[in-house]
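Bench notes, afternoon.
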Amino acid sequence: METRELRYFVALAEEGHFGRAAARIGIAQPPLSRAIRQLERRVGVELVQRGSRGVTLTAAGQVLYREAEAILDSVAAAVRRTRHAAQPRPTLRLALKAGGDSGLLPDVLAAFDREAGAVPVELRFCGVGEQPALIRDGDCDVALMHRTRGSEDTIPKLEVLELLAEPQVVVLPCDHRLAGRAAVHLRDLDGETIWPGSPPGADDGLQVRDAGQLMQLIALGQAVAVLSQSVRPHLRGDLVGVPVLDAPESVLLVAWGEGSRSGAVAAFVRAALTVAERARSRSAAAT
């Protein structure tokens, strides 16, 4: 199969009509029809059912549509990675959410700089939960991100390693009914609009783009958030973080693309693991 044929097929699947699909990709309708016929001959099955009002996908066509989207995304990501590798001065593109490094980033960057495969690091600050897509799409090489304990192994097409596990706190406005507590349990949050929706009964419909937006929502009393305890030193003066005794741990992960052979990525992962091990040792000694 050719990627051109797959692009044509995806357009047809999404438009449901040869005329609209041809206009979308900028060709006449007859060449599009011939390309789809050629694709059907290549795979040996009928992909679309043709009717007077348009086309619908067969069961086989639905499978190819899903696969074609993934293939085209992978091709586009490969192009971006290739162009990045061809730059005269290579860099390592690190994706992370602002404040989402559990305080490890300065030491990790220093340790990475001492590695034989070190290159300059380009920080890409992103919105909540955007790191996996940035790596899969070829826009970043490695990421630091948090996952709740138990969910960190469900990130498709990424390799991940655990760096640090932290207790969680609930971030509240200073005038909240629970703000003066030394600690709370998840049941104490019943009735609250909770982000990111990990506690039972939480409202998963809250849309948050970045940390600043989330903190503003909390300050306005429109939500509370259950986050890793490392956020506490960075909270605004009108917010407070209260430990949640029975919340699952928040796990800081280092993640990179599945099958990556980048020496710089490998060096960064080694540096991150070394720094995280030291941080765990300090924490154990303090307790």
